[in-house]
Amino acid sequence: MVMRRYTARPAAVGLIMGVDPRHFELELRKREKRLRRLVGQAIADYQMIEQGDKVMVCLSGGKDSYAMLDILLKLREKAPVHFELEAVHLDQKQPDYSPDVLPNYLRKLGVPFHILEQDTYSVVKRVVPEHKTMCGLCSRLRRGALYTFAQEQGFTKIALGHHRDDLVETLFLNMFHGSRLSSMPPKLRSDDGRNVVIRPLAYVSEADLIAHAEVAGYPIMPCNLCGSQDNLQRQSIKQMLQDWESQFPGRVENIARSMQSVRPSQLADRELFNFASLIGTTAAAAPKKPNDWMIGKTIPIQSAVD
Fold it and tell me: What confidence tens digit (pLDDT) does each residue in 187-203 have?
């Protein structure tokens, strides 16, 4: 496994990049403050964490989940409520997996943790045809293992590391390939009703997470299963959004905010809005049923005009 780790001090990173170390450290502190503010705002807006919660922080070994744990630990220090944080990682038995990386990192942090083992890698490789996307089955198997463990251990919340860009990408994936207007919500109850899932990074951009990880020293563990699939639909959506953001800065943020400002009457879903109840001003002359006119006597065009 090729593992990336950034261990240079912020000042040294600034020198390497040709930036004044004082300016670099100032920008670093501003970014960290922004990340804490955005995560704290998301938690408050959706009441993600409450008094007495036991939160299972799902740690994949990627930059997003590392940052999520890091920020949650810092926010807990000044939080007005008491809650527990425990890290949980699923060893999916991928090739070249390094079993000591996460335990060593978490012990240094002093964070309680659990390492689960389930050979989902072999299942996915056996079931999914070659050149087909593996992410769907892999995520379902992983989710099942984590949700079951959360229930067994009495966790009240499951924290996942999806960020703002993940939510926007999923919105377009569902539109383009599923013909539905939906994404990954910041907070939800699982389909089986047993677990509440939260996404504390829902307001955080991937660009900020990448910049943060470059100086945070996280031992990044890349996924050797789906990471090798270059033709995933999500990658094409990601590239589309990056192109838009390059040409129109702020567009991704606007799309993300639009998911918080939905107007059902301005869309076309009849289950969300009762369009049939909208009648003309001459309500007394309207048929008893919205579609009665369709089975009645045909009205001549001339008469209708007159």
Answer: 999 888 889 999 999 99
Neighbours of 149 (CB within 10 A): 17
Residue 87's SS3 state is strand
What pLDDT digit, counting tens, does each position of 222-251 carry? 765 554 444 478 889 999 999 999 999 999
Residue 167 lies in a domain: yes
Residue listed under structure tokens 């990386």: 101
Task: Tell me if 145 is assigned to some domain.
Answer: yes
Domain count across the chain: 1
> In sequence order, which ranges of 63-116 are alpha helices (DSSP H)?
63-78, 101-109
Whole-structure pTM value: 0.81
Q: Which domain range does residue 47 map to?
A: 23-262
- Which residues are registered as beta bridge partners of 88? 58, 114
* CATH number of the domain within which 81 lies: 3.40.50.620
47: left (phi over 0), alpha (psi -120 to 50) or beta: left
120, part of any domain: yes
